[in-house]
Amino acid sequence: MTDSPSLAARLPFPHTVRWLMPVVLVLFFLAILIWLPWQARQMESSERQEQLIADTLWVEQTIRFQMGRHEESLRAIGNDILSGTPPERLRERMLRLMKTGTELKRLMWLEPDGRIAASTEAAPPQVATLSPASRDAAERARRGRNPVYGQPEPETLNPAGTPGAIMLDYHLPLFRGDDYVGSVVATYQLSSLLDEMVPWWFAQDNQITLLDRDDRILARRAAAGPGHGVYTHKRALDLPGVTVTLMTDSVKSEPKLLPNLLVGSVIALSLALLWSLLALWGHISRRLAAEDALRQQMAFRTAMENSLVTGLRARDLEGRITHVNPAFCQMVGYTEEELVGRSPPMPYWAPEVMAEYQHRLANVLAGTVTPQFETIFQRPDGTRIPVLIFEAPLVDDAGRHTGWMGSILDITDRKRIEELNREHQEKLQASARLATMGEIASMLAHELNQPLAAISSYTTGALNLLARTDGAPVDSGKLKPALEQASAQARRAGQIVRSVFDFVKKREAERQDVALADMLDSIRALIELQARHYQVTFRTVLPADLPLVRADRMMIEQVLLNLTRNGIEAMANVPLRRRTLTLEACYDAPAHQVGVCVADNGHGIPQEVAERLFSPFFSTKAQGMGMGLNICRTAIEFHGGTLTHRDNPGGGTIFTFTLPASVTSVETTE
Fold first, then answer.
1. Comparing C-alpha atoms, which of 329, 324, 333 is closest to residue 380?
2. CA–CA gap between residue 603 and residue 589 (Å, rounded)
3. Could you tell me which residue ranges the Histidine kinase domain spans (predicted)?
4. pLDDT for 419-478, tens place per residue?
5. Residue 296's CB: how many other CB atoms inside 10 A?
6. How far apart are CA 15 and CA 273, in angstroms?
7. pLDDT value, residue 665
8. Which residue stretches of 122-189 are H helix?
9. Region of residue 618 (left: phi > 0; alpha: psi -120 to 50; beta: else)
10. Cα 466 from chain centroid (whole Å)
């Protein structure tokens, strides 16, 4: 099938370019018109922000320089105090310093006990009144022997007692040798600091604010009104012992995107032209929509079918093949020409399953189909391939049922993997059985030693009767009981050996209808052998009408032996009166399953162990491989059942597994 003529074929290249070029040029022109104002706005915004940062840095350096000059002057006053200058001269020098810096509101010389030795106030109190933050700064300055600033507090008052004027105290500690002789305290009024240090031209364009460490306002200067929050910058004043931040907020708003009416008019005309071109292009696109949709649909369908690894096969209501994809042709080894239009029987049907094909074909012709099933296909060279088929009704756009659509998967690899997994599980089970027999080898030797010793004793007695030298005939009545006992003990030893041999021998998995009691009798000797070793009482509860189970005998015997052995070993450290292992079975008719419970009275399973109980190579035993319960669960799931565990109400653990009941035995019972 060829594709329909494309848009490029319907419209010659120059004609297409004639329509496309105006659209591209208008779009480019419109983009330039939008980009230029936006770029200019961004550049102006960046320049304003950079200028604000630079001006803020200059103001911060000016304030810090002025305060640094005051700090030098205060250190000189401190040196005068240490040299013994009288308080009157010190006060004169303090007053001269305050005249040069109007932001300074008070200077004091405090003695170690807090009394004022000299002050710029006309009538200072005897003891200085400091805020808690200022007292804390004084203590820090004394301990560190370095000048510090006190944290300003919004609720502090100025010397005149007027609220709203927030002060900042500077403490310079004085030491003569190691002796603390007092400190020089300078008090700044923060609002005056902004009024004196911030130039008028900067204040006309910005709102200047001093903030404390919690971003609370300490002082603010807003000569031109509040800032707009568009251009802001924060700069911390480098003051020892205190956190004060200088924040500037420009009163300028964000620049406009469209600075004049001309740009807006050009953009509006460009948009109108673009709309007209798009309307014309839409008219052409609608006229060619059906053709383009068909072309895309055919291209997508072809690409999808060619890329699938799943075979697709469509059949009509009479069973004739109407469509196949390349994957199906490659799977069965026939070409599309050989298959399309072909009626049953199909060339890829295998002779051994021909009856199955005919039965399914009859169902198809009757209007029913199996949604999912497995079967075998045959290639021309005779190779058989297992396949998994999913089939569903094929409905046309009018809702009519026109046939059947099937998807076919080659499951050769899956079958091979399942076979390898089965062989691997058999090897693991054989290894687990050998490991189990290794663990009970010592108990087996002890168990065999008893019948062998009895056989030796009875045969020795018989030989002694035969070897009498008095010439009297041997009484068979005395000889027969000894030989019968020896024979019974030999059968007992042989039964033990056969149980071990049957348990460890390797064979293929085979499901059959078998009684749970028969499987239990086959390994009862091994279970009781371990139970006697741990002084455990083994008890079974099996209903007389329990149906047969459909299972592999050796796998289930392995599960029973593993679960009973775990239960016996779990009771090794409990009192003797509680060492009882119970195996109980019941039939669940609705689920058509036989449930088996193995309950012990042991130590139970902790939560952290229960989470990893069935994980491979996880074991709580010092010599355990960690594969026993994992193999048990795999064997039960192989039969379509489940293996779970729960706490025993009387202490210990109950393991429960289910097996499918035999259909024949259930029908006979009913």
1. 333
2. 33
3. 443-663
4. 777 677 666 665 655 555 555 554 455 456 556 655 665 676 667 667 664 556 666 666
5. 11
6. 19
7. 61
8. 132-144
9. beta
10. 83
* CB-CB contact of 189 with 158 (8 Å): yes
| Nearest-angstrom CA–CA distance, 658 and 228 | 77
Q: Two tokens at 77?
A: 């006053």
Distance CA 333, CA 377 (A): 10
Contact criterion met (CB below 8 Å) for 73 and 93: no
Q: Which two tokens stand for residue 239?
A: 């003051």
- Measure the CA dihedral 78/82/88/91, to 10°: 10
Q: Determine the pLDDT at residue 163.
A: 42
Q: How far apart are CA 438 and CA 382, in angstroms?
A: 49
Any idea what DSSP says for residue 578? G
Token duo for residue 52: 């604000």
- Would you give the distance in Å from CA 49 to the centre of its chain? 45
> At 517, which amino acid appears?
A
Q: Spell 592-623 as b/e; 16+ CB within 10 A means b.
A: ebbbbbbbbbbeebeeeeeeebbeeebbeeee
In terms of phi and psi (left: phi > 0; alpha: psi -120 to 50; beta: otherwise), the region of 381 is alpha
The 10s digit of each residue's pLDDT in 208-232 is 888 888 888 888 888 778 877 777 8
Query: How many Cα atoms sit within 13 Å of 155 on the Cβ side?
Result: 3
Q: CA-CA distance, 192 to 151, in Å (whole number)?
A: 17
Cα–Cα distance, 641 to 367 (Å, whole number): 35
**Residue 645: both structure tokens together:** 């565990």
Nearest to 599 by CA among 576, 566, 554, 627: 566
Identify the CA nearest to 559 among candidates 627, 501, 660.
Answer: 627
Of 83-97, 157-171, 567-581, the least confident? 157-171
Structure tokens that stand for 612 in this block: 């990893």
**Token duo for residue 257:** 């995107």
User: 313, 394 in Cβ contact below 8 A?
Assistant: no
* Torsion-angle region of 578 (φ positive above 0: left; ψ -120 to 50: alpha; else: beta): alpha
Under a CB-based contact definition with an 8 Å cutoff, are residues 593 and 659 in contact? Answer: yes
Continuous segment of H or E residues that includes residue 510: none
Chain position carrying tokens 């103001």:
59
3-state DSSP call for residue 81? helix
**Average pLDDT score over the chain:** 78
CB 67 within 8 A of CB 244: no
User: What's the burial of 84, exposed, middle or buried (CB within 10 Å: 0-12/13-18/19+)?
Assistant: exposed
Tokens of 649: 């109400």
Q: CA-CA distance, 634 to 641, in Å (whole number)? A: 10
CA 659 to chain centre: 36
C-beta of residue 571 within 8 angstroms of C-beta of residue 534: yes
Calculated CA dihedral for residues 25, 31, 35, 36, nearest 10 degrees: 30
What was the pLDDT predicted at 474? 63
